[in-house]
UniProtKB/TrEMBL annotation:
Source taxon at top rank: Bacteria
CDD domains for the chain: NAT_SF
Name the UniProt record assigns to this protein: GNAT family N-acetyltransferase
Alphabetized Pfam families for the sequence: Acetyltransf_1
Organism per entry: Fibrella aquatilis
Length: 171
């Protein structure tokens, strides 16, 4: 797997990848009643992602296989962390997703290691993220990667107000 910074030329394939990743990760089969379709239709669009690309504090990264096919992606963002996080020099891991077929093969760990190495190379002292309180699989993955909870926040999702747990770790 290779990880490269996404450019505006990657916008359409990135949105298609993100829509698929979200649909797989939060499907009705896994979370009955979860309003995933509404969230995707509102927040995972070309217009929204084009705005996110314009944010100079944010960067998108694509994970590709040897044939150059997208497997997953990251979004990182530099800005003031939540007040509850003691370490103020922290990078936010906004999104980390793999297509379902690539989960369980060590690629998630590689994506996370890339994020941690990147944060360190940019002078950050910690990485933090938000994870849905009902996503036990993701929480377990983050704990294995050394993340610990430090609070929570409300996350608007498909017309609902859901709760995300803040987690962080030093780099």
């Amino acid at each position: 797997m290779t990880i490269r910074r996404a450019t505006l030329a990657d916008l359409l394939p990135l949105v298609a990848l993100a829509r698929r990743c979200y649909a797989e990760a939060f499907s009705q089969d896994k979370y009955p009643g979860n309003p995933i379709d509404g969230f995707i239709d509102e927040h995972v669009t070309t217009a929204v992602y084009a705005q996110e690309f314009a944010d100079r504090r944010a960067s998108f990264w694509l994970a590709e296989n040897e044939a150059g096919e997208a497997m997953g992606f990251l979004k990182l963002r530099r800005h003031a962390p939540p007040r509850r996080l003691a370490e103020r020099n922290a990078l936010e891991l906004v999104r980390i997703y793999l297509l379902e077929q690539h989960i369980g093969h060590g690629y998630g760990k590689q994506l996370m290691q890339f994020c941690l190495d990147y944060a360190r190379s940019q002078g950050h002292k910690a990485v933090y993220l938000g994870v849905w309180e009902h996503n036990a699989v993701a929480q377990a993955f983050y704990r294995k990667q050394g993340f610990t909870p430090f609070g929570w926040h409300v996350f608007p999702f498909g017309g609902e107000r859901q709760r995300d747990i803040w987690m962080s770790r030093a780099v």
